[in-house]
Design goal:
Blueprint: E1 5-11, E2 28-29, E3 32-33, H1 34-44, E4 50-55, H2 60-70, E5 75-80, H3 85-96, E6 103-108, H4 116-129, E7 131-137, E8 142-144, E9 153-155, E10 161-170, H5 171-184, E11 203-206, H6 217-227
Helix pairs in contact: 3-5
């Protein structure tokens, strides 16, 4: 039996640059909301069987209305966020065990330029290696500053990567990693951060097209430009 892959799209976030409690997932980008662009990519991906959307409690009805308007047949349910992202994601993953899901692909809804091909590629690599993330290789010199602007370390070649979603994992592996993070009260930058706690490998898949996170008003115009190319 082929491994079943599901998607988990997280539609909850209020980047400070927008202000006034604006959630960029629900702002219009072209003819539809930012979140809907992400959901559409998962809808088109042949390797994704079903979708779960995580949204803040006050946005669940908005997500439901959005899906009814634009269509996304793969969405099985819309789940309200809990106290933290970690607890919310872990709760969904534990429920998916009963659905016999083998691979889970996580994606931040405010990254609307994701493609079905990128999702498929991370799923392919996760089935092979256990976990995979889409990433951009950083070719410029990278230096670290512990405090202020004084450089305290230089990151050497051969490769430094900026990792972002989509990220795919074997379901049991990610559950184990997130449970370890929850137990140790580790602050995660993303779900892939937890893999180091269980000594699991993460493989990078180089992005072949521009990617961006809608975190400020200027990002909407830039994303619109890239979508028209």
């Amino acid at each position: 039996m082929m491994a079943s892959a599901w998607g988990l799209v997280i539609a909850s976030g209020k980047p400070e640059d927008f202000g006034n409690g604006v959630d960029p997932s629900f702002l219009n980008l072209g003819m539809k909301p930012v979140l809907m662009h992400s959901l559409s990519a998962f809808e088109k991906c042949p390797d994704i069987e079903r979708l779960v959307v995580l949204a803040s409690k006050d946005r669940v009805d908005s997500v439901r209305a959005m899906i009814q308007m634009f269509g996304c047949a793969k969405v099985k349910r819309i789940q309200p966020m809990g106290a933290t992202r970690l607890s919310s994601v872990l709760s969904v993953l534990q429920e998916l065990r009963a659905e016999k899901v083998s691979v889970i692909t996580l994606h931040d809804g405010i990254r609307p330029l994701v493609s079905a091909e990128e999702i498929s590629e991370t799923i392919k690599q996760a089935k092979k290696h256990g976990a995979a993330t889409m990433a951009d290789r950083i070719l410029d010199p990278v230096r670290a500053t512990e405090k202020g602007t004084k450089v305290t370390a230089q990151v050497e070649e051969p490769a430094v990567w900026s990792c972002h979603t989509p990220q795919s994992f074997k379901l049991d592996l990610l559950i184990k990693a997130l449970e370890a993070a929850q137990k140790k009260k580790v602050v995660l930058r993303d779900e892939a951060d937890a893999l180091s706690l269980v000594k699991a490998e993460l493989h990078v898949q180089q992005a072949t097209r521009p990617t961006m996170r809608i975190a400020a008003p200027r990002d909407l115009a830039l994303a619109d430009y890239f979508m028209r190319q």
